[in-house]
Design goal:
The chain is mainly beta. The protein is 8% helix and 42% strand. It has a 16-stranded antiparallel beta barrel with strand order 1-2-3-4-7-8-9-12-13-14-15-16-17-18-19-20.
Amino acid sequence: MRFGITFLVTALLSPCALAQADKTNLSPVKDAPAVTSTAPTLFPHSDTARYLVSGQANIIFQAHAPFHSPYDGLNSLQGRGEYKTSLLGTLYLGYQLRRSPASATDVILDVESSGGRGISQALGLAGFTNLDVVRNPNLGSKPYIARIQLHQTLGLSSRTVEVDRTQFSLATQAPERRLEFHIGRMSLPDYLDQNFSGSDSHLQFMNWTVDNNGAWDYAADTRGYTYAAVAEYDDRLFSARYALALMPKVANGPDLDWALRRANGQNAEVELHHGLLGSLLPAERSGKLRLLGYANHAHMGLYRDAVNAALASPGTVPNILDHERFSSVKYGLAANFEQEYLADSRIFGRFGWNEGQHESWAYTEVDQTYELGADLGGTHWSRPYDKLGLAFVSNAIKRDHQNYLRLGGHGFLLGDGRLNYTREDILEAYYTLHAWHGIYYALDAQFVEHPGYNQDRGPVLVEGVRMHVDF
């Protein structure tokens, strides 16, 4: 993937590209852009009303041509050419029970419908190409409650600051020092591992491991949601967050385990409001650094146990399901940065690691990842709501995980029947075009080398077209 890294570095450092960047305002929140007076929507939204009614529709078409595939398995990306379309629609509802900045209270209800399919039924890639896809197509497109939450703010200082009005927080002013609590059904990436340039699959990148940290196996059901409590402390220089969440009963399963004593996901994050290059850049060039740690307790198995059992019985295939036990703990660390270096020009990146011995449980099959990317706004070419982005991500798994797949084992995403291991490298580029009011179109390309960590298969180019509507 040397050409991918070279291309990315060249784009980041190109003086022409940097000189043309200017200020714009695309969403900092994954699948929930900020509702502000400057964000184009089909219908106007008030920043002062007690209520919020808004919505989104996101349609993604993706396809790939046939690629080199001497063999495949139950969970392989299909070597033949294929195309698929996904559709995700969300209705966001919110009401301010109490409007005082010092003790604001919001009630949030989001209803969602997810339909269509992903290429190869969302199998065969650790960094899958479409974050909107539900990994269990049998769930259907019947509307469901995605989020239902109580959001409470407790002020700790008399000084107030302006804050963005979003689908998860309706206030436009808040105390500079404050505690915030979110309790209910949610997606943990709504509040953790956020990144202005790399967290929104509806207006930015589409790949799972570009929009989220692939090594963060965050608590979630098949659709990506859980019941959780998030506590957040905000100050001028930093923020700190802690989340306690329910885990699924089985890997990537639709049902959550409500017995917190035996199964839970614990997450802690510190966010520094100062970029990596802050001292070398003008004060107005914002940046942030986030450090995240997590520990999941669930009914998980060890890859090594499954491998040893298969080796002891020649001719058998390892099955992690036969070695699951309660009290298993999977833990990991993640880092996330963003830095504005010219007006509306940002670089961003992530690094993630988990212990990799226990089975991948909720998000994807990644034990270690690193990512570097950049985006440019379109103000300079008179397209203030257009955006261009480029990112490179490299994913890996640990040796026990490798051996499990090499002997023919299957996870909930991967399993070619055998494995000639190497890292899975992905280069993604997109251009988002604002067509009219809240209507956006995007072209996207993802070049995947070694899909599913397999040197024997690929590379493959996945091309995509997206239509996004903000109501």
